C-alpha cells in the first residue's frame, strides 16, 4: 500500500504481499466491487491509488479502457503484475511510485480508486487535494476507510490496544484514527461533494465507503 515513512512502511507492506489477497478478499471487498461498478464506463481511464496486489484493478479491468495502478511497495507490484498476467488483463499499467509522480497528469482520470489508504497518511489533506488534481471535474473518488474512532466491540478495543503497541514499536506504519464525521469533513473541505456512503462492515472496526465527486478546480 501507500506510505509516509518510505523505508519502514515499504518493508511492512512487502512482508504482507505474499498473503495479502487472502486477507483482503472479505465482505467489504465484495461490497466495494458491487457498489462501484456503476461508476465505471468503457471509455474511462481510471487510477488505482495504492493498488497493493492489484485486486481491484484486475476486478474492474474489463469495465474500463485503461487503469493506471500504483503502489510504493515493490513486492506488492510484483504480485500485481504476476496476477494480472495470469488473468490475461492487458489494459493495466502498474507503477512502483507515489501519488505525486509527474507522469500522472492533472485532470486525466474519470475515477480514482483510493481504497484502504487514507488512514496511512498524516497529511490527508495533501493527498486528497492531489487526488482532486488528478480527476477531471465531475470525476469521482471511490474510497473505503477503516474509521478507527467509531464505537466498536470489546474485542475491537483490545485490537486497538494491540495496534497502538505495534505502532509504538514501529512494527506498523502510521495510522490515523478517523471518525466518520472527520473523514467526511476532510473530503468535503478538499473540493469534493459526497454522493454515496455506506457502512460496509462494523466489526472489528467501521469500514466506511464513500463516493465523492470533484466539484471544481
Structure, explained:
- The model is unreliable at 1-6, 153-159 and 161-169 (pLDDT under 50).
- This protein is an alpha/beta fold.
- The chain has one domain (6-214): Rossmann fold, CATH 3.40.50.
- The chain starts with 5 loop residues before the first helix and ends with a strand.
- It is built from eight helices and seven strands; from the N terminus they run αααβαβαββαβααββ.
- The protein is 38% helix and 25% strand.
End-to-end separation: 27 Å
Radius of gyration: 16 Å
- Please give the domain count: 1
Number of strands: 7
CATH fold field value: Rossmann fold
CATH class: Alpha Beta
Our count of helices gives 8
Structural class: alpha/beta
In round numbers, the mean pLDDT is: 86
Q: What is the architecture at the second tier of CATH? A: 3-Layer(aba) Sandwich
Helix and strand pattern: HHHEHEHEEHEHHEE
What is the CATH superfamily? Vaccinia Virus protein VP39
